[in-house]
Specification:
The protein is mostly helical. It has one domain. Helix content is 58%, strand content 3%. It has 14 helices and six strands. It is globular and about 60 Å long. It starts with 17 loop residues before the first helix and ends in an 8-residue tail after the last helix.
């Protein structure tokens, strides 16, 4: 039962990862004891059907129902939250191969759940390859460029003094920036951030671009057939801004908070100071895990520590394995951080932004 992604070799400490082995054994036994499949299962498929139904139902009513402006606004917000929910509860699991051991099944789910112009290929590289393997490591994971400083290792710029103010305003534009920027660069040039991951031919780039846009073009095209262009534009802008805010806040409060650790790779040895499994726990934080509604909506991403340790486990099982993960962390002296409320997590993220926005001592006036 392969539950975790294989850690990059240079992140494993020289003596091996005893903590990681103990964690995998404990969680494997928990799943067996509860007779739960690591991947798939009826609950995961049922949840996907409900969330996709919410999203498609909102869209259908917006396009075909005889509604006025107030109802249209309410449905636009409904579709906004539903689309973010599809990304977190359906596409996210499918890209991690959590629906099935058959990669074609997972790929099919990804295509069904991808209708907002972000390609599965870019997400696999950006999220699976870099974020999960190199969590919180500068140059490989979180990076807003010159806009924001999210790691102690990143270069400080004077504008960062105010990042605890202006980043909140920019978070809604995260998905739009990925649509027109990061994902487009991957589709055309095979680049993820500063890394050349592939060198696609012209034909391959055209195919990727078509794959990236097919769902978006279809949805907008159908809507324009029945609704005024200005109204369609307003609804889709709402969907991307509200959805962008939801997705941005969901991830930043689970990695860039004042409890987070940021591993550094030692260049001479190529080794990190801590093993892969420990780096996942120290670099992540859980959020309001007793809030069942929140857990349902975000695809249990509020059980972020468990997800990072076992990304191939269907998110509906993360609550079940959480007590064992906490126990193993306690036995090995690895801190397990959890914020009891959304408000507490947002406050921690705000403190984190303010702290990293201060000029380093050698640059302070």
């Amino acid at each position: 039962m392969n539950l975790a992604t294989a850690p990059p070799a240079h992140l494993a400490p020289p003596r091996g990862d005893e903590f990681g082995r103990a964690m995998r054994e404990a969680v494997t036994q928990t799943l067996i004891a509860h007779e739960l499949p690591a991947r798939g299962g009826g609950r995961l498929w049922g949840k996907a059907a409900v969330v996709l139904g919410w999203w498609l139902g909102s869209y259908a009513l917006l396009v075909w129902a005889p509604i006025g402006v107030p109802v249209a606004v309410a449905l636009a917000l409904s579709m906004s939250f539903a689309q973010a929910g599809v990304g977190m509860s359906v596409k996210h699991d499918a890209v991690h191969h959590a629906f099935s051991r058959n990669h074609r099944v997972n790929a099919a789910v990804v295509h069904v759940a991808t209708a907002y112009g972000l390609s599965a290929g870019w997400w696999r590289h950006k999220h699976n390859r870099f974020h999960h393997a190199y969590t919180n490591i500068d140059g490989l994971d979180i990076d807003l460029g010159a806009v924001g400083r999210l790691s102690p290792q990143q270069v400080w710029r004077p504008r960062h003094r105010w990042q605890h103010v202006y980043l909140w305003v920019l978070y809604p534009f995260v998905v739009l920036s990925q649509f027109f920027g990061a994902d487009l660069k991957y589709a055309l040039f095979g680049r993820v951030g500063s890394h050349q991951v592939e060198r696609p031919s012209v034909g391959r780039a055209v195919v990727r671009l078509a794959d990236k846009l097919k769902g978006f073009v279809l949805l907008v095209g159908i809507a324009l057939t029945f609704r005024p262009a200005l109204g369609v534009l307003a609804v889709f802008l709402c969907i991307y801004l509200v959805g962008g805010m939801v997705l941005a806040l969901t991830f930043v409060v689970e990695h860039t908070v004042d409890t987070s650790t940021f591993p550094v790779i030692d260049p001479p040895s190529g080794q990190a100071s801590i093993g892969w499994a420990e780096s996942q726990v120290r670099g992540s934080a859980n959020l309001a895990t007793q809030n069942r509604l929140l857990s349902w909506y975000v695809g249990s991403l509020n059980h972020h520590i468990e997800h990072h340790l076992f990304p191939k486990v269907g998110h509906v099982h993360l609550r079940t394995i959480a007590p064992e993960v906490r126990r193993v962390c306690a036995e090995h002296g690895v801190p397990y951080h959890e914020f009891p409320t959304i408000r507490a997590a947002l406050a921690s993220h705000g403190r984190f932004l303010r702290a990293l926005g201060r000029a380093p001592e050698h640059l302070a006036p």
